[in-house]
Design a protein that fits this description.
Distance between the termini: 33 Å
Radius of gyration: 25 Å
Shape: elongated
Structural class: alpha/beta
Number of strands: 8
Bound molecules: uridine-5'-diphosphate, magnesium ion
Order of helices and strands: EHEHEHEHEHEHHEHHHE
Helix content: 40-55%
Strand order of the largest sheet: 7-5-6-4-1-2-3-8
């Protein structure tokens, strides 16, 4: 019988672990799906990992790992994928905002032969206006850059083992899980779901962290900003040609003393272009530097008893 693994990244979610574990195991037992749950405590500052240990002791199908510090949701997802052994893997938030009752539908589609089942938001749930707007802009830009419709996509998805293995073999350290499954291809379908209210606690995202996330992911998936530098260069050349001709004409006509405003404007404009370009290039160099260092995506400091096999950076007592 096929095994379904569920990966649950958890950061400061002590109130959610026991409830989520219970909701999921009840559901999967009722549906007679063989399952395992993999909780990753992403450097939580509260008792999240202790909660995971507790549920893992009572249910051998639950595994957990703890990061040595907060490495971010992407890292938790990949660490979770690494620890799974299932034939199909679902990634979902552990605050139950991704409704568990969609799991049987995903499972059924997987049994019909689909290899990637994307959860698509039918509405974004209750979010603050600032969040909605920044998320809206983020998805617009992302969709343009990576040429896929990202607006309704999320990290809630089911992946076949094949796809999980492909993702785990990618050498890059800066990953964007949501878009990588599009990139990987495979036989894909979608399932609509309604974003639920958070079960307990508060969202871990701020507008600033979301903006950082946007820039990091946009640049990890596209080199378009670098080409923007070339475009800006061409615009300046065109403008200098026009102004150059104008200046020459004025010089020849003998009234060249004027035009100081133009000089100031030009210096400001070109200075701005150059600095912006350097910033963009610098950002990519920083990303290359990070990749070249080749540090692991995450460090696991502790795993529950039932975790077998080798996890990157795992330290076992
Ligand atoms: N999360 C994580 N590491 C982080 C931030 C968040 O593992 O650094 C997890 C979090 O515990 C939750 C999921 O990612 O299970 C989504 O986070 P959250 O609910 O805060 O985001 P939102 O649903 O508001 O987008
Ligand atoms: Mg949430």
């Amino acid at each position: 019988m096929a095994l379904l693994s569920i990966v649950l990244p958890s950061y400061n979610e002590e109130q959610n672990i026991a409830n989520t574990a219970k909701v999921l195991s009840d559901l999967l037992e009722r549906e007679e799906i063989k399952y395992e749950l993999v909780f990753i405590s992403d450097g939580s500052k509260d008792a999240t990992y202790e909660e995971i240990q507790k549920v893992a002791e009572n249910n051998p199908r639950i595994k957990g790992a703890r990061f040595s510090r907060n490495f971010g949701k992407e890292a938790s997802i990949f660490a979770g994928l690494r620890l799974t052994t299932g034939d199909a893997v679902i990634v979902m938030d552990c605050d139950l905002q991704h409704p568990p009752h969609t799991i049987p539908a995903m499972w059924k589609l997987w049994q019909e032969g689909y290899e990637v089942i994307e959860g698509v938001k039918s509405d974004r749930g209750k979010e603050s206006l600032g969040y909605k707007m920044s998320a809206g802009i983020f998805y617009k830009v992302m969709s343009k850059l990576i040429k896929m419709d990202m607006n309704a996509s999320s990290d809630y998805k089911l992946l076949d083992r094949k796809v999980v293995d492909v993702l785990l073999q990618l050498p890059e350290k800066n990953t964007f899980f949501r878009a990588l499954t599009f990139w990987a291809g495979f036989k894909t379908t979608t399932v609509e779901y309604e974003v639920q209210e958070r079960a307990y606690g508060t969202s871990k995202w701020s507008v600033i962290s979301l903006m950082k996330y946007a820039v990091t992911n946009a640049t990890s998936f596209s080199t378009l900003p670098l080409q923007l530098v070339t475009v800006m260069g061409m615009v300046s050349i065109l403008m200098s040609a026009i102004l150059g001709i104008q200046t020459l004409v004025r010089y020849l006509m003998g009234n060249s003393a004027e035009g100081f405003t133009t000089v100031i404007l030009l210096i400001l404009l070109i200075g701005g272009f150059i600095m912006l370009s350097l910033g963009i290039i610098g950002h990519y160099i920083a990303r290359i530097y990070e990749e070249v260092k080749g540090r692991p995506k995450y460090i696991i400091s502790e795993v529950t008893e039932n975790v077998q096999g080798e996890a990157v950076g795992t330290w076992k007592k």
